[in-house]
Each structure stands twice: as structure tokens, then as C-alpha cells.
Amino acid sequence: MLLSGLIFAAESAASEISEAISEAASGVESVTSEATLGDAVDVIVENPNQTFSVLGELFGNIGKSFVAMLPKIIFAAVVLIIGIIIAKLTLFVLSKGLSKTKLDLTVTKFTTQISKIVLYVLLITIVLSLLGIPSTSIVTVIGTAGVAIGLALQSSLSNVAGGFLLMINKPFKIGDYIITNGVEGTVSQISILYTRLDSITNQAVFIPNGMAVNATIVNNNGNENRRLEMLFSISYEDDFKKAKSVIEKVLDENEGILHELPNLVVMKEHGASSIVILVRSWCRSSEYWDVYFDLNEKVRAAFIENDIEIPFNQLDVHLDS
Hints:
9 helices; disordered N terminus; single chain; SH3 type barrels; 321 residues
């Protein structure tokens, strides 16, 4: 093994240097057990030939050990390169295979990420074993490192656990528009530690999975259909029944409205300066905002066409002389 060879060479060289120093010290003044570091340096400086001889032998032993291990190093490097290629091909095939199943895109990407970590850890273990490092030592190091990392990154572990819970409970999936922890956006990625949202303004928002699991989540795409609720105002001088029929006609002509489900157009309240009309209708969750904005435009245009006034707040001031 390269590591054991280097350690043996270093120990041999250190022993020889120590003997050379002792021999050199016997030829000059006696070096006692209470000698300082400066005395030892003086001895080495006064006997440069022996010192360089021992150092030369040390580097020679290191070079011999490296040459002896060179075939193993080359073989391990080849295995590493081939292993990386095989791992990438495996992940590619796995991703393609999962994409053809009925599993959600969220589960597919999460499974691919876990498989990538497992494959590369296995590859590193194999390469280190080829270099002569005992597999038991590798497992011990990995276990110790895992414990140390776990203690140092307790919050991250809660995020990892949160990621698994998101896969199991599925409160949302990739492509859903959600509101949680004071932010909202379309879910674009669910990784081991974080969930990524793309906001309406195309900002990337990263939410730790631990927070996502424990927070209230509003999933706007959780159901296939979604109900629109809109308010329109008309003046007190206008005919409510006429305005109601105009709105119903706009709803009937809108292709985004689900006509098999009932619409509701009623007088909600008598406002301070207008009559408020409540409109409820149904549409596909994925088309919610398109239908919402389209109805706003079409109802306003229909009101103007039918001479229905859209009021605004007015204040009458009476002055007493």
C-alpha cells in the first residue's frame, strides 16, 4: 500500500536521522537529555553530509514506494474514469425510465438525486480499495464523518427528513403554484435540502424543506378546477337586472369558463356609492389568471357598450352660509 509504504519510509528516515545525530553528537560535546532544540540544530548543521545522506535515502524510499504503487494508481484512475462514465449512463437510463412511468416529476427528480449520491459514494469506496486502503477503514471513516457532519448540520438533517416527507405526503408537486412561509411561486425543483419556487417576477425563492413541511401551504393547483370570485360595481341609477344579464352573457361567451358547473351572479351589498355585484364561476386551475383578467376586460367593455355606469367614490360637500 502506498500509504503504509510512505509511513514506513518516513519512520526509517527519522530513525536514521536520529542515529546520525547521536553519532555526530558523540564526536563533539556530549548532548545531554536537557539539550535544547538549538543544540540539535547545531549538531545537524555541523554534520551536513550525514544529514543529506539520510534525507536522500528518505526521498529515495518515497520514490521507490511511488514507483511500486504506480500501476495501482493508474489502474485506480482508469476505474475512476470508467466508473464516472457508467454512473452518468446509469443516471441517464434511470431518469429516462422513471420519466416513462406514472410517477410525478417530483418523485423522479428526487430519486435521481439520491441515486447519484449513492453511486458516487460506492465508486469512491471502490477506488480507495484498489489503492490498498482496507474497506473496513473506509467504512469507519465514512461512518465517523457521517456522525460528525450530522452533529454539525442538525438543521440540514431536518431538511433532508422534510424532503422525504414531501415525497411521501405530496402536498405539492413540480409545476404547482403555492403560497407558503410568506412567499409564493411555481414549484420548479424539490431537492434533498431545499424547495425552489419561481416567483411571478421570475425570482428564484429557496425554502428549506423543514420549513415547508411544518408551514401552512396553499396549493392553487391542488384541485383540477378552481372557482373564480369577482366583484363588480354599478351605480344606483342603473338597472341591476340589466347588469346581471350582461355579466351572464359575458360568462356564457367565455371559453375558459366551465359551463357544466353553475355560475352565480347576485347582488352582494349596497355600497357607499355603488351596488356591488358578486360573480362566482368555475375554470381550470391552470387557466385561472387568464380567465380572471379576461373577464375583467370583457365585463368593463360590456358595461360601457350597454351604458352601465361604473361608479367611483364621490364626496358631496354642503356649505352653510
